[in-house]
Amino acid sequence: MTGGTIAEARRKRWWQDGPPLRSLEEAQEYIEDVGICLLFGGAAARYPSLREVSRDESLPRLPSGWGQDLEAMWTWKDTLPVKGGAWLGRYLSGKQTLLSCRLLADLYEFEGEEDDVLSAAGLSEEAGRLAGLLLDEGPMSTRALREAVGVTGKRFDQVLTELGRRLLITNYGVEEGPGWASCVIELTARAFSVPSGGSRAERDALAAARFADTMVEAKPAAVCRAFGWSRERAVAALES
Questions:
Q1: CA distance 180 to 143
Q2: What are the pLDDT digits (tens) for 91-112?
Q3: What is the CA radius of gyration of the chain?
Q4: Among residues 56, 86, 107, which one ends one of the domains?
Q5: CA–CA separation, 190 vs 205, rounded Å?
Q6: How high is the pLDDT of residue 176?
Q7: Are 44 and 120 contained in the same domain?
Q8: CA dihedral over 139, 143, 144, 145, signed as positive or negative
Q9: Are 101 and 149 in a shared domain?
Q10: Total H helices, total E strands in the chain
Q11: Which has the minimum average pLDDT: 17-26, 94-103, 122-131, 176-185?
């Protein structure tokens, strides 16, 4: 395909040539169809974006850019993980990403037990401490986690990204409080049914096939970037 043809095919595959999404059910249908999408990505994003397919320019908008369409999408992203409809966390390029339950189960690397976080090798001290708190205390707000773990700002975001890239944690609704509402974080294995059945190689092949279908065209390097796999693993999965 030429670059322009790929862009056009992706726009159609990512539902960007149709009417904007209007409901939670349509949002879940979209995520289940594409398997993986950014929360915010921009019209020229590398991946599908929930914001772009829910954007409705016919609705009134405040000078800040906030409108009814953005408010609806904001509610969907908080509701879907709690209902078991989609995983949400810092995954693609460390940005907020939604995964379908099927793709999440194929990508999940651990046994599917609450204490998976204890067997995850290579976690930083802060990431291990945050995961341990969730294991012991249950879902907690980011406000409470910052205080309990003792890290704030950019470093706290890095810890959430570290655990999100391993799919060990998920956003799990919000907690109201003074000022802005605070995101709630939960262990993925406690919130979703993971992993899927089959061998690791079979699950890799299913995940790679879903990604290639969504991306229209996907080379091993693209799979490596998205899933954090080695080139050998990506090639084997795509060839399967």
A1: 10
A2: 999 999 999 999 999 999 999 9
A3: 18
A4: 107
A5: 25
A6: 83
A7: no
A8: positive
A9: no
A10: 13, 6
A11: 176-185
The encoded tokens of residue 209 equal 């096939």
Cα–Cα distance, 238 to 32 (Å, whole number): 21
Q: Which residue has the tokens 């599917």?
A: 112
Domain of residue 23, residue span: 3-107
Task: Kindly report, residue by residue over 221-239, the tens digit of the pLDDT.
Answer: 999 999 999 999 999 999 9
Would you say residue 127 has pLDDT above 70?
Answer: yes
The reported pTM is 0.94
Give pLDDT, residue 4: 67
Residue 36, helix vs strand vs coil: strand
* 59 and 129 belong to one structural domain: no
Closest to 106 measured CA to CA, from 223, 202, 215: 202
Contact yes or no for 56/123 (Cβ under 8 A): no
- Cβ neighbours for 55, distance < 8 A, ≥ 6 positions apart: 20, 69
The DSSP letter of residue 57 is T
116 pLDDT exceeds 90?
Answer: yes
Could you list the beta-strand ranges (E) of the chain.
36-38, 87-90, 96-99, 140-141, 169-175, 182-187
Q: How many domains does the chain have?
A: 3
Residue found under tokens 């000078």: 63
Provide the token pair at 203: 């699950």
* Residue 181 sits in the same domain as residue 229: no
Asked if residue 88 and residue 127 are part of one domain, the reply reads no
Same domain, 34 and 121: no
